[in-house]
Amino acid sequence: MRPNLPWLALPTDKDDARLAVLLASSDGTASWLQEVQALAGFAWSEPRLRKLGKAVRRLFDRPSWPEVATKAGLFPYRLLILSSETSTHMQDLLTATALRHGIVLQTECAEYVEPEMWVASEERGQDFDGTLIVTDAVGWGLHHAAHTADEAQHILDGALSRVKRITQSVTSRLSPSVMFQTLPQEDESFRSSLDLGVEGTTRNLRARFNLGLAVNAVNAGIMLLDVASLASSVGISNWRAGRFKHIGMFPFAPTALEFYADAVTRIIASRVGRSRRVLVLDLDNTLWGGVIGDDGLEGIKMAPGNPTGEAHRAVQQMALDAHRRGIVLCVASKNTFDVAIEAFRSHPDMILTEDSISLFKINWQDKATSIRDMAKSLDLGLDAFVFVDDNPAERMQVRAELPQVAVPELPKDVSDWPHVLSLAGYFEQSSLTAEDANRGAYYAANAKRDALREDASDMRSFLASLDMEMQVRPFDAMGRARIAQLVAKSNQFNLTTRRYSEAELAALESDEGVITLQLRLKDRFGDNGMIAAVVAAPVSGGMHIDLWIMSCRVLAREVEQATLNLLAQHCQERGVDTLLGTYIPTARNGIVRDLYQTLGFEKQAEMPDGTTSWKLSLAEFAPKDASIVLV
Amino acid sequence: MSAAVEAADAIQALQEIFAEELDEVGLRLTASDTPDSIADWDSLAHIRIIAATEERFGFQFDLAELDELKSVQAIVDAIRARA
């Protein structure tokens, strides 16, 4: 069985003809891309979808494809897939499916690899926005049962600490984001019903690994592709690769590809801020059974115990749950306002309350117009909207008028709606805690991408074109938490690896003798947030730089030069004429080994452990060139 | 499949499958074609072609047989052996 995507509408003959024309005339312009995108939301056959993906992938031959994507109102995203199994067969479908979610997805695959080995041997820089790690149970060492509880724990600890190591090396070397997959429960052993609770059985190992991975994802801002949940939605019998594992090392059934691709790309969409945020609901035969204008308040069905009532109650409950998770609810209904609103005000069986609905559009105008009005009032793009209506004619009208709005196709039987809506996963949340950090990361990735495209000789005009602004403040209570985080996390651009507690940072805030700098950087791609911190304290012979850390997201942006200029200026204001620095090598801070030399410091000494000390006389110091405006 | 599949019909059907899976409208297929003679007939395309052929003719190739299906003639023979 092909687990298709039941929430997608079938294309009409007109759509079909239009796509054929577009695929034959692929010219790689933004308007072509927009037209293809408007059609990408239909349920195309797999070969058709693959062709669509191929046509879009032809864009990637041109280095300017990210600009074309942006111009078309879409988000360019580069994904690296590091897979222990076959993955090149996914690429066309991934690109085609990503378009459905507003992403122009370029992919590269490294197959049959161990992620650590590959990352360690790879010379690529931060060329990617995200890295998907596809590792099966064999790759994680979880395919055999453990003999004792201790052994089980040992195996799990090993696998989960590998997740952390891989995250660290991928994010420091390849891409700001990383995506891991949970393992489906396809352990093909003679199972016993108790296995889940028996420590060390393959079922137990997988379940614990999945839980550990998921908790880690929530806490560390890792993207998680819950393959276990996907597989259980379609059933393991439909998910498992079967003979395709032996023929072509496929990770799962080729028939499940569209379903898998939708999940991957919707997570990416959410990561870059493109997930849906508004649920627009019809009333008659959607929130309740019957038509309130004809059947009256007493005639509509939503009572517990009544089959029709129960089915509609489940839809209401699902909407209420979404509301509690931060989704905006709206109502669009063709009704007389006073008649329909009465259900919210006085029907005892309503689950949704009037308060839970942000906007009511109960009138006789067409629904596309109502939704357009909502977008205006909420100041949100139409691509944030999902529209649920039992009436196929209304759905078709909204789809035709507003292709950006997601309009799920719904089964005739309302009992099946919650399942279909949950498969569609409209309100994907890719991270709960690290949102700001990630936003910054993808802006930075954008900028780096631009940088790579630029001719190196033209670096200065590239930097100037970034319109960088740096905000400088001494340490203060407001910035303390973020400084502490930066101090704890910076391992690469960190000259001394000196760690400060929040209490120590607080003490520095009021220490007049010490120079402290917290630096925030903005550019035309957005706010990078706080990206550097410096502490310089008086010693005999000058000011010594005790701490100099910077986020690697802003490497090669002349932030170092601007920082030195600031330090020199602060020293001179205090009448200090010498700046001293120390580099203490660690396994990870090799990138700043030559920083002081590059900035014109003179080496004073070198210890056997590689620690070097440096001196800069400020008497003849000329400020370094830096394309950064201080504010 | 009630009657024996004629070789010509099998090639015709395969031609449609190849055209679809390799995204080459108007592709002409002959019995002597192999992965060497058709540029896009790589191992991944091969798997899709096999799966589409199975769907079209309503049977599943034997696992052991899959290694042998490296020419149009071999696929045609395997189809006709089932009819």
Structural notes for this entry:
- The complex is a heterodimer of chains A (631) and B (83).
- Helix content of chain A is 42%, strand content 17%.
- The model of chain A is unreliable at 433-449 and 452-456 (pLDDT under 50).
- Chain A is globular, with a radius of gyration of 28 Å.
- By secondary structure, chain A is α/β, with parallel strands linked by helices.
- By secondary structure, chain B is an all-alpha fold.
- In chain B, α1 (7-21) crosses α2.
- The interface between A and B is medium-sized, with 14 and 10 residues.
What would a concise description of this structure say?
Chain A is of the alpha/beta class and about 625 residues long. Chain A has 24 helices and 17 strands.
End-to-end separation of chain B: 6 Å
Determine the structural class of chain B based on helices, strands and strand pairing.
mainly alpha
Fraction of residues in β-strands of chain B = under 5%
How would you characterize the largest beta sheet of chain A? 8 strands, mixed
The largest sheet of chain B, given as strand count, sense and whether it forms a barrel, is: none
- The best one-word shape of chain B is globular
Low-confidence stretches of chain B: none
What characteristics describe this protein?
heterodimer, A: 631 residues, alpha/beta, five-stranded parallel sheet, globular, B: 83 residues, mainly alpha, 3 helices, 0% strand
